[in-house]
Structures are given as structure tokens and as C-alpha cells.
Amino acid sequence: GAGMTVYFELSEVPSDVGEITVTVDGVSIANDSSNGWTYDPSDNALTFHGTGIPAPGGHVSVSYPVGGVCP
After folding, report:
1. How much is the pTM?
2. How far apart are CA 37 and CA 23, in angstroms?
3. Is residue 53 a contact partner of residue 47, using CB atoms and an 8 Å limit?
């Protein structure tokens, strides 16, 4: 419903927040505070909003660069 949010904690701290990509069931979700996701550095977590909120049982995939780690 309106005003509902979902939190998704990240395991590492992104080195470049602009490079965070989020997909839900293979569909790309935009960085959007109305119908997408936003990043909260104080919690190191993503918050999903509006139509960007994953469906129950949906598979959320988040990728982002991590500083100081070579692949």
C-alpha cells in the first residue's frame, strides 16, 4: 500500500553508490524515492518504495563495487 517500505541490508559498503544496480526477478529497479529504491549510508541498506517493492518471495539481486577488493 501507499507509504509501505521494505529494507534490504547490504553485506558490504559500496565504494560508489552511483554504481549500485538492483533487480527484482530479473527486472531492473530504478534509484527512485517514489517507485524504486534509495540507499541509506547510515544503515548501509536499501529501502524500496512504491512499485519498486519486491513481491513476497521475489528474488532481489543487488550489485555494487566495493573499495579495496580485487576480483
Report:
1. 0.83
2. 10
3. no
Residue 9 DSSP class = E
Instruction: Please give the grid coordinates belonging to residue 3.
Output: 507509504
CA distance to 11, 12, 33, 58, per residue, from 43 (Å)? 11, 11, 16, 22
> 60-63 and 21-24: which strand pairing?
antiparallel
Q: What is the grid cell recorded at 32?
A: 527512485
Rounded to the nearest 5 degrees, what angle is found at the Cα of 15, between the Cα atoms of 51 and 61? 35
Give dist(CA 5, CA 55) in Å, integer. 12
What lies within 8 Å, CB to CB, of 68 at 6+ separation is 15
| 37 SS3 class | strand
19-49 pLDDT, tens digit each: 999 999 999 999 999 999 999 999 999 999 9
